[in-house]
Amino acid sequence: MGLKRSSSSLFLSFLVALFLVLSNSAVVCNAGETSSFVRREAKSVDMPLHSDVFQPPSGYNAPQQVHITLGDQEGSAMIVSWVTMDEPGSSEVVYWKEDESSVKKYAHGKHKSYKFHDYTSGYIHHCTIRKLEHDTKYYYEVGIGHTVRRFVFTTPPPVGPDVPYTFGMIGDLGQTFDSNITLTHYEKNPRKPQALLFAGDLSYADNYPNHDQHRWDTWGRFVERSVAYQPWIWCAGNHELDFVPEIVTIFPIHVVVYNSFRKE
Length: 264
Ligand SMILES: *[C@@H]1O[C@H](CO)[C@@H](O)[C@H](O)[C@H]1NC(C)=O
Prior knowledge:
Elements: H1 2-28, E1 64-70, E2 78-84, E3 92-97, E4 105-108, E5 110-112, E6 115-116, E7 119-120, E8 123-129, E9 137-142, E10 149-154, E11 167-170, H2 177-187, E12 195-198, H3 214-227, E13 232-234
Parallel strand pairs: 11-12, 12-13
Antiparallel strand pairs: 1-2, 2-8, 3-4, 3-9, 5-8, 6-7, 9-10
This protein binds 2-acetamido-2-deoxy-beta-D-glucopyranose.
The site of 2-acetamido-2-deoxy-beta-D-glucopyranose has 7 residues, from helix 2.
């Protein structure tokens, strides 16, 4: 009995604490309702392979599926990833601060590839650039030596108790016509999110026979237009598990946490 009473008062103080936390956070992060967008209910159809959003960039061995994510917990490093198809090419990233284009820096990365059933991936590059300044716009180039492509990102502000920074959030994106509308909608948000929290289930390639990995490549090309310019922070969903015991005995997981949406 005594035990029961003390646990219920404990529960009450928990509720009070929870209320305080929630009411406080309502003041601190007043996100409000940012959109009236509601996705239509009709079944979503995948965009066909010849769709504009899936087209690879032109040029010999041009880097494609370029994407960035945070490279440390302080916001002073960025991991740049991309895929080349013709040959490995360079895993180097050239980068510079917006206002110091004469001071170019170089970072060296690595590449790897993987096989899955009858699919062989391109050369998947990862390169971490470190010691970046906060709140700073950087240009970066990949494809050094072949077809060079240039992108830009801004680093987050220094870590602190009250730092304004706007996150977007997307989950279950896939590659349907509606996925494209969702991404367009995100890009047009007037609040200009600076990084995206991705809640898992990226490409839905596993909906295809033998989990057709080409649909990871199309997905990577589709989202490049956002993720090459601002970090997306990943978490894995069940669709990242390639459990197909009929064709592969060891099932790989697309490692989306931390550095890449590609298999490692
Ligand atoms: C995807 O959206 C972009 C931007 O709105 C548009 O330019 C493009 O044509 C769309 N592609 C498809 C296949 O819906």
